[in-house]
Amino acid sequence: MYGYHGKILHIDLTNRETWVEEKPESWYKMWIGGVAMATRLLWENIKPGCDPLSPENPICIANGIFAGTPVPGGAKYGLASKSPLTGWVGDSLSGSWFSVALKRTGWDGIVIHGASEKWVNVFVDDERVQFRDAEKYLGLGTFQTEEAIREDLMDDQVRSATIGPAGENLVLYANVTNDGRQAGRTGHGAVWASKKLKALSVRGTKGVRVADPETLMKLSFDIIQAAQGPHTAKYRILGTVTNVLNMNKLGLLPTRNFQEGVFEHAELVSGEYLEEHHKVKKIACAQCPIACEQVSEAKQGMYAGARTGIDYECLFANGPNCGISDMNAIIKMIDLCDRGGMDAMTNGVVVSWTMESFERGVLKKEDFRCAKYPEGFEPYFGNAEAGVTLTEMIRDREGIGALLSLGVKQASEQIDKERGTESYRWAMHIKGLENPGYDARGLKTFALGLAVGTRGGCHNRTAAYDPDIKGVVDRFSVDETRGELAKSTEEYAAVYDTLPLCKFIRRCFTGKADRSGAWPAIAQLINATVGWDFDYDAVDLIGVRATTIKKAFNIREGWTRDDDHLPYRTHHDPMTKGPSAGHVVTKEELEYLKDLYYKAKGWTPEGLIPKAKLIELGMEDVAEEIGV
Amino acid sequence: MALPATSKYKYITCDPEKCIGCQLCEYICSYTKTGEYNSYRSRIRTVRVDEILITAIACRTCENAPCVAVCTRDALTQDPETGVIRVDAELCDGCAWCIEACDFGAISINPATKLAEICDLCEGEEDGPQCVIWCPKDALELTTPEQRAQKARRKLATEEALR
């Protein structure tokens, strides 16, 4: 078996012990890597029902099948824990050198148990593990921590996944960051901090061998060439920020906390504007020929010098969604998130909830007292300075920042309980995870995909916006095809997230991104790397198993049908402007759609998984625990 | 300290404006030389500093190469035609003096054999340096200092004329 090492490294931070777990080839064939393998490791190693910030919640890292090979977009790893933000499965992906260095250490995955007494930097140096004192790195930002560790270890090929100050402060949406890329969304940074793990560093010096190098080189070369053409133009030239104007045109660009889907200053926050005024460099993950990361800089005013990679999701969230049109301030907010180590998407939606709560009188000026503004300040929509200050306060959990660091679900529940208000009506989250930048009221297949998503409001785990936006179906109505569509697009995404392979490469295999275009090519890549005999059906099964193990995890944690929900606003408040005005997703529509989805998955009407279905997928032990 | 004069010989140059830091050159180099993918065995190395400054560096094929001059065991020799530095595995004892002498950081020690390894411009490959062929952004080029200077002058002339 090439491509894998057959070994998982276990590290117990409480007792500072390590042990090795060997896994059979059949296990790898089932779980492959990335999201599915990380979730499977979580399933095997967690104490069900545990507090996500307790030592019983393990950190599960699963590498990618293609990490360290020249397969473009294959340098990715999966990270899973129980999410402190949502209480459900927290599965994330991050790209780049960390996964490559990990591959060269000889471990396919790492499970970190327990909790350290003192802040620690775990250093996996090929087969050795060192527990390094991390006190001196406290307070350092994500990029800075990585550099400091490299300097201390005197090797620029040491790669580290770190948490920043936001993580140290237990912001519930803190990220884990490596090489400028984030394992985002579900609050891994807080889990790491609860274990006093500041950074996990890896140095791998072993060469990577594959089963059929000649074939793999040929396939990779052709994909790299194709990736310089029209199939990746969107990502290479403007990057995903090109979506700003596209979404605005469709009336789907969340504006002022999802009150509207069109932003009157869209031009000023567009990808085109960013390119012309702020772009400084395009950067790639390891082994990626696309380079989608659009590093941009604030050039003028009080935020000059702020610099980080800008993509659509963080731009929509901190820009239009907060009514902010000053790109310098938006870059500053995202820079604060990236260096502070917290999720820029969630941050924008938290700030926008705060702004709406202020405008509706739920929060008052005096609630915003802080060192910078001892009398408080007025965070109305469009107040860019307030956006920046709130981001800093959340990172440091200063003043009201401590409440906001819980995310909009917990923050609104707490405020409503204390003040008898109804701010939950504009808390934009699903299962506790803040919504992405495509308004579900104008995308009804996507609304279903979001509602049933196991990690909450996430656009990466479902591609159900695709048939809506492409016009394959009517995006404003529902019909019986949507269950199958939501299933199929979710499983499609899960294949990429499990290999993992960056979705931006999906059109470069054959020019066709659908299953018929991509699966045979992906099977060839797997076979040339590992020496297996995967075919179309085997590739398709990867996505079925990945979505099933994630669902199984949630069921074991107490999931019921009511937990597949949409935000209050998506049901009750139609937008008043733009092409998506006047629409909501009614509760009846959502329940109808959920029925269709569960049926398409072969699950019960309650959304539970029949034993027979699990056994059919080779998941007998899971059937034993949660099958019905 | 002034950089030593580079020379008439060809070498692999990287345009930092085009380089995206993907490291594919390192994968390809190590594969070509060892059959494995391993940046520790690559004779071209990417460098990223201050987050956005990225380039790749390989042997500059200096004239009167300092690495050759300092080798105490005469293990390093330079091809008078191509400028390629060759390492005699019998003579090299991995003392790393050559690494210290190289102002470009272009020499590394093989962690397994402990011998010096230097870019040889893929002189054994029919189609020349593999990293240049694979570089997705055409950032790498096989060139000479004089060709580079000519290119810089032409670029400047174009920019001035268009101003």
List keywords for this structure.
heterodimer, A: 628 residues, alpha+beta, Aldehyde Ferredoxin Oxidoreductase,  A, domain 1, Aldehyde Ferredoxin Oxidoreductase Protein, subunit A, domain 2, Aldehyde Ferredoxin Oxidoreductase Protein, subunit A, domain 3, 3 domains, 25 helices, 17 strands, 40% helix, globular, B: 163 residues, Alpha-Beta Plaits, two-stranded antiparallel sheet, two-stranded antiparallel ribbon, 5 helices
Structural account:
The complex is a heterodimer of chains A (628) and B (163). With 628 residues, chain A is α+β, with helices and mostly antiparallel strands. Helices cover 40% and strands 13% of the residues of chain A. In chain A, a hairpin with a 4-residue loop joins strand 1 (7-12) and strand 2. The two termini of chain A are 35 Å apart. The mean pLDDT of chain A is 97. Chain B has a single domain (11-162), classed as 2-Layer Sandwich (Alpha-Beta Plaits). The longest helix of chain B is centred in the C-terminal third of the chain and has 18 residues, at 145-162. The mean pLDDT of chain B is 92.
Topology (SSEs and partners):
The complex is a heterodimer of chains A (628) and B (163).
Chain A: E1 7-12, E2 17-22, H1 25-31, H2 34-45, E3 59-63, E4 76-82, E5 89-95, H3 97-103, E6 109-113, E7 120-125, E8 128-133, H4 142-153, E9 159-162, H5 165-168, E10 176-178, E11 181-183, H6 188-194, E12 197-203, H7 213-226, H8 233-237, H9 243-250, H10 271-277, E13 279-283, E14 293-297, E15 307-310, H11 312-318, H12 327-340, H13 344-359, H14 384-396, H15 401-404, H16 407-419, E16 429-430, E17 433-434, H17 444-452, H18 465-470, H19 482-498, H20 515-530, H21 536-556, H22 568-572, H23 587-601, H24 611-616, H25 620-626
Parallel strand pairs in A: 1-6, 7-12
Antiparallel strand pairs in A: 1-2, 3-4, 3-6, 4-5, 7-8, 9-10, 9-12, 10-11, 13-14, 14-15, 16-17
Helix pairs in contact in A: 2-21, 7-20, 11-13, 12-14, 17-19, 17-23, 19-21, 19-23, 20-21
Chain B: E1 11-14, H1 24-34, E2 45-49, E3 53-57, H2 66-70, E4 76-78, E5 85-87, H3 97-101, E6 108-109, E7 116-117, H4 130-134, E8 140-143, H5 145-162
Antiparallel strand pairs in B: 1-8, 2-3, 4-5, 6-7
